[in-house]
Amino acid sequence: MIAAATLPRLLAGIDPSGPLDFHQHELLHGPLPSSREAADLIGDLERAGLRGHGGASFPSARKLQAVAQARGKQIVLINAVEAEPASEKDRLLVECLPHLVLDGAVAAARATGAREIAFAVRDGARDAYGAAARAIAERPRGEPPITLFAIPDSYVGGQETALVNYLSGGPLRPTFTPPRPDEQGINRRPTLVNNAETLAHLALIARNGEQWFRSLGAPGQPGSALVTVAGAVVHPGVYEIEYGSPLASLLTVAGGPLGTPRGVLLGGYAGSWVPYERALEARLDDAELAVLRARVLAGVIFFLGEEACPVAETLRLARWMAGQSARQCGPCLHGLDALADELATIASGHGDGGTLQRLGRLGELTAGRGACAHPDGAVNCLLSALETFEHDFAEHARSGPCAACGLPATLPLPDWHLPDSSPQRRRLRSL
Amino acid sequence: MTRVRVNPIACEAHGMCAELLPERITLDEWGYPIVDDRPLTAEQLAHAELAVRACPVFAVLLEAAR
């Protein structure tokens, strides 16, 4: 029998005041099928069409297959770092539904032959850390041991090679690939790195099967997704949507906008700004969003309020993204600073006809030339702002700062700094 | 088929690669290589091998083109 094709899936039974304990979790979802019962989990994931929910949207079955086939002692790494400042979905899962995430990690470990699980939570997410620690203690005997790690707060710290580097005793900075983590990850062991939400979906596919999974969603992007609605809306928060559903319906569920938003940032700080009116016509899946040159990515949907200045917000974001560069790759290190400088020239009213051209050229020089996708994402986001808020940028280039330029930032830009690059030797027990 | 690739973390903008393989590598305004990663011809491959050996930080690599 196939369970009904309705939402919520992941968020079923959620109690916002605290985590469901193991007993409550099993009453809700039933026991996790054994590896004998879910004998072809990787095949099921492939047929289900599950893709990663951390931003890169990589086919999950291929990751599991690569780790299962690699030589060495496999390990599963739960990536719940969620370094996208406007995103709250992974934190919500870990704080309220930790056993769904852990079920996914246990099932993935069994399917890949891993006998150990590492669980990475961002240092600043203290409640998530506490909920994760309690949930680990509640797991039944006979499962792979789970070790919890607090990862220093930084944007690129959520990137999988940076995490693997850090958990191997190195700095929290991305590494050159190959080798990819599935070949040589933590301490050179084949490492399956999966986002927390991806593992929660995996836990439900292990129970309900691929047909159930595909009974919701868009043709090219089956299933549901957690999204974080933020900014100028009545009820900001985490919502579960069906891929392909209208953004306007989500906005209605979130209580509607506050005023008339200036624009919408889709995906996160590597994502794309789109005009509010266009966003209202959009459907939330990558094929539909392609016409807006946007993607769902990590599921952030940020509404920029009508009183905010898009130029000032973009400039602050550009500086922040430049500051979050690991400063390892020349084009990212120089390019993001240069882009922010050009934006500052426009914002202060000193731009000329050449400034916009130079921004475009700097974007081309910067994107795609780092070891990780940080410069690509930052450039994509900044250039989409130039297009979406074209009139505001033109007005600032002519007349300088507007009355709203001095207002406080509405995009969350936390005070995060990459830790010192010098490798500290940390003894990571058992990894 | 082989293509040239640069490890951007290792690269320190010495610029030797652009001297030795100008057919495939130019430098940006900060001195870092901009790589054309189309497959190399036999003659370019010989130049690319020189570039690999000349890089003082071993940042130039040859990879099988997909």
Describe the structure.
The complex is a heterodimer of chains A (431) and B (66). In chain A, the strands form 3 sheets. Chain A has a 5-stranded mixed sheet. A 4-stranded parallel sheet of chain A has the order 3-2-1-4, sandwiched between helices. Chain A has 16 helices and 11 strands. Chain A is α/β, with parallel strands linked by helices. Chain A is globular. Chain A is 41% helix and 13% strand. In chain A, helix 2 (41-48) crosses helix 8 (196-214). The radius of gyration of chain B is 11 Å and the shape is globular. With 66 residues, chain B is an alpha+beta fold. In chain B, strand 2 and strand 3 (33-35) form a beta hairpin. In chain B, the strands form 2 sheets. A two-stranded antiparallel ribbon of chain B has the order 1-4. A two-stranded antiparallel sheet of chain B has the order 2-3. Chain B has a single domain (2-64), classed as 2-Layer Sandwich (Alpha-Beta Plaits), CATH 3.30.70. Chain A binds chain B through residues 174-176, 328-332, 334, 365, 369-371, and chain B through 7-13, 28-32, 34.
Short synopsis of the structure:
The complex is a heterodimer of chains A (431) and B (66). Chain A has 431 residues and is an alpha/beta fold.
List keywords for this structure.
heterodimer; A: 431 residues; alpha/beta; Rossmann fold; Ubiquitin-like (UB roll); de novo design (two linked rop proteins); five-stranded mixed β-sheet; four-stranded parallel β-sheet; 16 helices; 11 strands; 41% helix; globular; B: 66 residues; alpha+beta; Alpha-Beta Plaits; two-stranded antiparallel sheet; 2 helices; 24% strand
